């Protein structure tokens, strides 16, 4: 086994054709020839997962979750087999593994599982006979031996988890050439970031920057693993996501994130019956619905409460609030999907004064109203009208030279 081992992850767009798979195989051969051993994590080819879901719709609108997980994992299994075949054509010793074969044990929902453990020994043993180990991303198995999937961004999460148990760097390749200060499709002058702290990246991912799944960054952050994100088979330099203690300088503001996948749920009740909130949170917990931007207005005579959630949770939220109305007949519920979340992120906010006031002043002076605000040590998030999303992004990026 060699001392130089790295995890590389390729997304569906990077391996969407056999020609692309062969080009990646040739690139991986170059790295092996330079005395590296590699773990390659792959997604399903192209839009295969979407195609599988379309096929399901031909049979049922309410598939069993265990059956659906069984089906969806077949996309990644094809990818690992094709890539391993391409590598063997180049005389590279490779071994392909499903999530089950790689020992990726999970807990939770069949379609939204979380990784509980991975055996490092399995990989170290296989590296005695192979230069490249190819692992199916997005999947694992639960305590009953049933196949599970990891949900959105699951292949990124797989790659970061393997890198963490092996204590090696992780490189994630996709169709973008790094992390930008904001979405270049929204603000064309957005600047590419060479290095960003893991804390900042985790905040950006969780607040709408769709390049990396937040769970992937969190795993790397918790285990002190450097992440690299770059464009597949490109000579352009990407972005390093570094452990916080490796960052020598911190900007006041690093980026602006926009999250359009937002609904605002507002509840109003004519008395301050806090048992209602307890019942609400129990129902949300049972439905595994994550909520954000919680707001309560103090009023001795009325209960007014609001929160944000994802669009695809709307049907479940409507159902559970209907259940609440059976016990609280005067409960009023309004669901609004005309908002977006706008977040300003920067590790320098912890130490530099005046950043928050500048953000608020910039929005107010440009007549951009906001209905809710939440903060963390390194971010400020506003709920604004969707029609103002581009204008707000532009003025904040210009104000902070992003």
Properties at a glance:
402 residues; alpha/beta; Carbamate kinase; Alpha-Beta Plaits; eight-stranded mixed sheet; four-stranded antiparallel sheet; 11 helices
Task: Spell out the blueprint of helices and strands.
Elements: E1 5-10, H1 18-33, E2 37-42, H2 48-57, H3 65-89, E3 94-97, E4 105-107, E5 114-117, H4 120-126, E6 132-136, E7 139-141, E8 147-149, H5 154-166, E9 170-174, E10 179-180, E11 192-193, E12 195-197, H6 198-206, H7 214-222, E13 227-231, E14 239-242, E15 255-259, E16 263-269, H8 275-286, E17 292-297, E18 303-309, H9 314-327, E19 332-336, E20 339-345, H10 355-365, E21 370-376, E22 379-385, H11 389-399
Parallel strand pairs: 1-2, 1-9, 2-6, 3-6, 9-13, 12-14
Antiparallel strand pairs: 4-5, 7-8, 10-11, 13-14, 15-20, 16-18, 16-19, 17-18, 20-22, 21-22
Question: What can you see in these coordinates?
Answer:
With about 400 residues, the protein is of the alpha/beta class. Among the domains are: about 5-175, Acetylglutamate kinase-like (Carbamate kinase, 3-Layer(aba) Sandwich); about 265-335, ACT domain (Alpha-Beta Plaits, 2-Layer Sandwich), CATH 3.30.70.260. Helices cover about 35% and strands about 25% of the residues. The strands form 6 sheets. It has an 8-stranded mixed beta sheet with strand order 3-6-2-1-9-13-14-12, with helices on both faces. The chain has a 4-stranded antiparallel beta sheet with strand order 15-20-22-21, sandwiched between helices. The two termini are about 45 Å apart.
